[in-house]
TrEMBL record, chain A:
Pfam families: Peptidase_M16, Peptidase_M16_C. It comes from Micromonospora sicca. Residues 21-139 form the Peptidase M16 N-terminal domain. The keyword Cell cycle does not apply. This is Peptidase M16. The keyword Ribonucleoprotein does not apply. Residues 181-360 form the Peptidase M16 C-terminal domain.
TrEMBL record, chain B:
This is Peptidase M16. Residues 31-153 form the Peptidase M16 N-terminal domain. GO terms for molecular function: metal ion binding. Residues 186-358 form the Peptidase M16 C-terminal domain. It comes from Micromonospora sicca. InterPro entries: Metalloenz_LuxS/M16, MPP/UQCRC_Complex, Pept_M16_N, Peptidase_M16_C. Signal peptide: none annotated.
C-alpha cells in the first residue's frame, strides 16, 4: 500500500485575480476532468432565502454572455463529455469530464459563466428553473417514504441561526419568493475568481493548463470583502436529547440516531469516519451483526451508519435501522441506541478495526480511480484546507486511527444527552 | 467585457483505445480480462448464465433470494465468519442480476484479488443454504421488495412490462419478482436454482493491472469444483405491438407527482439497427439536451427530468420514457411527450441534433470507461452478447459514421407512438378526468 493516498503529481498556481488553479497530470487515458469549487453553499443563506444557492446552481447552466440558453449542455455533450454540478451546505461544485482535445472548450465555458452570467440571466429562466427545482424537491423529498428525514434531522442537530440548521433544497415558500435581483447579486457576490478553485486532472500538460487558465479567467475581476457565512464551529450542548416522532405514509417503522462530531478534515473526524465504518458498513459491522443478524429486529438491507463530510461545523454521524415486520419502533430504537452506546463499553477489536480500514482503503482507491473523482477531492482540499497536497494525508490518517480513540470519541460525543432521534411510524391502516 | 468571446475549437484528438483484452480457457471455464497498467484497484466478476430469464414463471425473484443466501454461510464457515473474512480484504460480495446474466463480484486493492476470488468462489459454489436461513432470507427479500414498492415507480414499471409482454411470460414480469412471488418461494426453489445454474463454470471477468495478477490462479479458484457445460442460449422472442394506444392508471392517493412510464416493445440487442436506434433514442430522450428533456423540463418546468431510450437484452427490447411530473400538469405533460415521440417518428432527426448525439455517445466510451468497475461491466457486454475484443472501437466508428438518413429511418421504423402504453402512477381522484379528456387513448384503472 502506498504511503500517500495520492501518488500522482499536483501542481498549483494562483492567478493575479486570486483564482487558484490545481493540475494533476495523468496521461493514462485520453480524458480530462475540469472541476470548479466555489466556496459558497446553503450555509451562506440568510433567513427567507433557503434553497437559493442550489437554485442558483441551476441558473449557471442556462447561458452566459457568449453562451446561448441551452448551449452549455449541448456543447459539453456534443464534445462527448459528462457534466453536472452539486450544492451542499458547504460549497457548490461544477464539473465536466471531456475527451482531452476539448479541454479548452470546457475552460472557456466555465470562464464565461464565472465572468458573464448576470447579463444573460432573465426572469423567464428563473421562473422555469424555480419550477424545475420545486419538482426536484417533490421527487426527492416529498413523494418518497422517509424522503424528508434529512430535512428533519438538521434542525434537531443544529439550532436556529446555525449555518447547517436548514437543508440545501430550501423551503417551497422561500423558492416561490425568489426574485431575480437577489440572484444577480448572489452571482456578483460569490462567483468571483478569488472565491473559487479550478482543478484539472488527466490528459493535459500542466504549463498549458496554467496558460489557458490565465487566458480565459485572467481578466475576470476579483471581488473584495466576500461575506463570510455565520460561524458554525461551536454548537452549544443543550444537555438533553432531541427527539422527533413522525407518523407518515411509510411501510415500516424506521429510526435515525444522529450526533454532532467534528468538522471534516480534522483528526477527530478521521476517528468518526473509522467509527462509522465499524458501526455501520457491511455485514460485518456492529449494527448488522447485532440488529439484522443477532436480534433480527432490523431489515438487513436498511441498516447502516455514515458520517456526512461537512467541514464548517461539527459534522453529523447518522445511524439508521428499519424494523422487521412485527418489531415496534420502540424496540428498534432501544436496540439502535444500545449498539451506539456499546462503542464506549465494548472495545473495538483488532479484527473490527482492520475490517473497517480495509473497506475504507478500497473506498478511497475507488474514488481515486477516475480523473473526475480525483479532481473533485483536490478542489475540496484546496478550497477547505488551503492546500490540495493535503489530500495525500487522509488515507494514512484513517489507517492510523486506534480503538482507544474510537472509544474516547464515543464517550465524549455519542452520549444520550447529545443524541438526536428521529422515528417514523406508519399511519394506522383502516 | 473582459471575457474571450470566441469559442475555442478542439485540439488534436488522441486515438481511442479500449484496454487490451485477454481471453483464456482455464480449468473448464472462460477468462476475459482487461489490462489496466498502474491501477491499484482490481475487480473480478463471475458471470453466470443465470439471469432472470432462467427463472421459471411464478418463481420470479428466486435469483435475488439466492444471491442473498450465498452469504449466509458456506461449507467452510458461518455467515459472520464469512462476512468478516471477505470484508477484511476490503470488499463486500456484490451481486447483480439482469435478464441475461447473474453477476457476483469483488473489488479490492490488486494484491488482495486472489484471496477475494477464493472467497467469492466459496460462496457461489459451496453455499450452506441451510433451510432456516433460506426461509429467513426469502422473508427479508419479500419485505425489502414491499419497502421498495412503497416508492413511486415499481408498480408503474410492472404495469408497463405486463402490458407490453404479457404477465404469463417471465419477461413480462419484474426482474426481481414482486413481494408476493418472492414470499411464495420455498427452500427447494432456491436450492434447485443453485444446483441448476451456479455450478456451471461461467466466465471470470477481470479488470486490473495484469502484470500484478495471476489469471490462471484466479481461474483455478473460480472454477474449482464447477461442472456441467454451457446451456444453449435461446433466440429472440417475437412480440406483437398493440393496435391502439392506451393509458393505465395506477392509483397513488395524495401523490404530489405523477410517475410516468410510456413504452412499447422494440428489437433485441443483436438487431442490425442497434446503433441508429440508440442514436434516435438519444436525440429523443437519452441526453440532457434531448427533445423530451428540453421541452418538458427546460421549457415547461413540469419535471426535474425526463428520459427515454431503447433498451435491449438478448431476447427482446423495449422503448420507454420515464419521468415524474407535478400532479397538476400530468395531462399536458403526457400530451407533449407523446407529441415529441410522434414528431420524431414522422420527421426524424436533424443534423445538429445528431452531431451532438453521436459525439456524446462516442466520447462517453472514453469518459465513462475509466474505473476497473466500469471496464469490467464493458467486458461483460462482450461476453453476454458474443462481441469481439475490438467491439468498443468498432462501436465508436459506427456511432461517428451514422448519418441523418439512417437514424431517421430507425426512428420511423422502431418508434410506434400509436402503440404506446402510457402508465400513470398518481392521485387518480385528481387526474383521472383530465386524462380521459386528453383523448390520448382509453383510460384503464390498474387493479391492485
Amino acid at each position: 500500500m502506498p504511503d500517500s493516498g495520492y501518488p500522482w503529481p499536483i501542481e498549483t498556481t494562483r492567478l493575479d485575480n486570486g483564482l487558484r488553479v490545481v493540475v494533476s497530470e495523468d496521461r493514462t487515458a485520453p480524458a480530462v476532468a475540469v472541476n470548479l469549487w466555489y466556496d459558497v453553499g446553503s450555509r451562506h443563506e440568510p433567513d427567507g432565502q433557503t434553497g437559493f444557492a442550489h437554485l442558483f446552481e441551476h441558473l449557471m447552466f442556462e447561458g452566459s454572455v457568449n453562451v446561448a440558453k441551452t448551449e452549455h449542455m449541448k456543447l459539453v455533450q456534443g464534445a462527448g463529455g459528462s457534466l453536472n454540478a452539486t450544492t451542499n451546505p458547504d460549497r457548490t461544485n461544477y464539473f465536466e469530464t471531456v475527451p482531452a482535445e476539448h479541454l479548452e472548450l470546457a475552460l472557456w465555458l466555465e470562464a464565461d459563466r464565472m465572468g458573464g452570467l448576470v447579463p444573460a440571466l432573465t426572469q423567464e429562466t428563473l421562473d422555469n428553473q424555480r419550477e424545475v427545482v420545486k419538482n426536484e424537491r417533490r421527487q426527492r423529498y416529498e413523494n418518497v417514504p422517509y424522503g424528508d428525514a434529512w430535512l428533519r434531522l438538521l434542525p434537531l442537530l443544529y439550532p436556529p441561526g446555525h449555518p447547517y440548521h436548514h437543508a440545501t433544497i430550501g423551503s417551497m415558500a422561500d423558492l416561490n419568493a425568489a426574485e431575480l435581483a437577489t440572484f444577480q447579486a448572489f452571482h456578483t457576490t460569490y462567483y468571483a475568481p478569488n472565491n473559487g478553485v479550478l482543478t484539472v486532472v488527466g490528459d493535459a500538460d500542466t504549463a498549458e493548463v496554467f496558460a489557458l487558465a490565465d487566458k480565459y479567467f485572467g481578466a475576470i475581476p476579483a471581488r473584495e470583502d466576500i461575506p463570510v457565512a455565520p460561524d458554525g464551529r461551536t454548537v452549544p450542548a443543550t444537555g438533553r436529547p432531541a427527539v422527533e416522532t413522525v407518523t407518515a405514509d411509510v411501510p415500516a417503522p424506521r429510526v435515525y440516531v444522529a450526533h454532532r462530531t467534528h468538522p471534516y478534515g480534522t483528526p477527530g473526524y478521521d476517528v468518526t469516519t473509522v467509527l462509522a465504518t465499524v458501526l455501520g458498513t457491511g455485514r460485518g459491522s456492529r449494527l448488522y451483526q447485532r440488529l439484522a443478524d443477532g436480534e433480527r429486529i432490523a431489515q438487513p438491507d436498511l441498516v447502516g451508519a455514515y458520517g456526512v463530510d461537512l467541514a464548517h461545523g461539527p459534522a453529523p454521524l447518522i445511524a439508521t435501522a428499519t424494523a422487521r415486520p412485527g418489531v415496534t419502533a420502540d424496540r428498534l430504537a432501544a436496540g439502535l441506541a444500545d449498539v451506539v452506546d456499546e462503542l464506549v463499553t465494548v472495545p473495538v477489536t483488532a479484527a473490527e478495526l482492520d475490517r473497517a480500514k480495509a473497506l475504507l482503503s478500497t473506498q478511497w482507491w475507488r474514488h481515486m480511480s477516475t480523473v473526475d473523482g480525483r479532481a473533485d477531492v483536490l478542489g475540496r482540499y484546496a478550497t477547505q484546507f488551503g492546500d490540495p497536497a493535503k489530500i495525500g494525508e487522509r488515507l494514512p490518517a484513517w489507517l492510523a486511527v486506534t480503538a482507544e480513540q474510537i472509544a474516547e470519541q464515543a464517550a465524549e460525543l455519542l452520549g444520550a444527552a447529545d443524541r438526536a432521534t428521529l422515528t417514523y411510524l406508519p399511519e394506522e391502516t383502516s | 467585457m473582459t471575457l474571450i468571446a470566441a469559442r475555442p475549437g478542439p485540439g488534436a484528438a488522441r486515438p481511442y483505445r479500449f484496454p487490451q483484452v485477454v481471453r483464456r480457457t482455464v480449468a473448464g471455464g472462460q477468462v476475459v480480462a482487461a489490462h489496466l497498467p498502474g491501477q491499484n484497484l482490481a475487480v473480478a466478476l463471475l458471470l453466470l448464465d443465470a439471469g432472470a430469464g432462467r427463472e421459471p414463471v411464478g418463481k420470479d425473484g428466486v435469483g435475488g433470494v439466492l444471491a442473498k443466501a450465498l452469504e449466509e454461510g458456506t461449507a467452510q464457515r458461518d455467515a459472520t465468519a464469512y462476512a468478516l473474512a471477505i470484508e477484511a480484504l476490503g470488499t463486500e460480495l456484490v451481486t447483480g442480476l439482469d435478464r441475461d446474466s447473474f453477476q457476483v463480484s469483488v473489488q479490492v486493492p490488486v494484491e488482495r484479488l486472489g484471496a477475494a476470488v477464493e472467497l467469492l468462489a466459496e460462496a457461489v459454489r459451496t453455499p450452506r443454504l441451510d433451510p432456516a436461513d433460506v426461509r429467513r432470507v426469502r422473508d427479508d427479500e419479500a419485505t425489502a421488495l414491499r419497502m421498495d414498492w412503497a416508492n413511486p415507480g415499481p408498480r408503474a414499471d410492472a404495469a408497463l412490462r405486463a402490458d407490453l409482454f404479457g404477465v404469463g411470460n417471465r419477461w413480462g414480469r419484474p426482474m426481481y419478482g414482486d413481494p408476493d412471488t418472492v414470499a411464495g418461494l420455498d427452500v427447494d426453489d432456491v436450492t434447485v436454482f443453485h444446483s441448476e445454474w451456479f455450478i456451471r463454470p461461467g466466465t471470470l471477468i477481470v479488470a486490473g493491472d495484469l502484470e500484478r495478477i495471476d489469471l490462471d490462479a484466479l481461474a483455478a479458484a473460480a472454477f474449482a469444483g464447477a461442472g456441467g457445460g454451457p446451456v444453449e442460449k435461446r433466440g429472440p422472442i417475437e412480440v406483437t405491438l398493440h393496435d391502439r394506444r392506451r393509458i393505465i392508471l395506477v392509483d397513488r392517493p395524495g401523490s404530489v407527482q405523477s410517475t410516468l412510464r410510456l413504452g412499447h416493445p422494440s428489437p433485441h440487442r443483436a438487431h442490425p439497427d442497434h446503433v441508429p436506434m440508440t442514436l434516435a433514442g438519444t436525440v429523443l430522450g437519452g441526453a440532457f439536451t434531448s427533445r423530451l428533456n428540453h421541452l418538458i423540463r427546460e421549457v415547461r418546468g413540469y419535471t426535474y427530468g425526463i428520459r427515454g431510450d431503447f433498451a435491449s437484452s438478448r431476447r427482446f427490447g423495449r422503448f420507454a420514457v420515464s419521468s415524474g411530473v407535478q400532479t397538476a400538469v400530468t395531462a399536458p405533460a403526457l400530451v407533449e411527450a407523446v407529441g415529441e415521440i410522434t414528431r420524431t417518428q414522422l420527421t426524424g432527426v436533424t443534423e445538429d441534433e445528431l452531431a451532438v448525439a453521436r459525439s456524446w455517445r462516442a466520447g462517453q466510451l472514453s469518459v465513462e470507461l475509466q474505473s476497473p468497475r466500469a471496464i469490467a461491466a464493458a467486458l461483460t457486454t462482450l461476453v453476454v452478447h458474443d462481441l469481439p475484443d475490438d467491439y468498443h472501437a468498432r462501436l465508436r466508428e459506427a456511432l461517428l459514421a451514422a448519418d441523418v438518413e439512417q437514424v431517421s429511418a430507425a426512428a420511423a421504423t422502431h418508434l410506434h407512438p400509436h402503440a404506446l402504453t402510457l402508465v400513470v402512477e398518481g392521485d387518480s381522484a385528481v387526474i383521472r378526468d383530465e386524462l380521459v379528456a386528453a383523448d390520448l387513448g382509453e383510460v384503464v384503472d390498474h387493479a391492485g
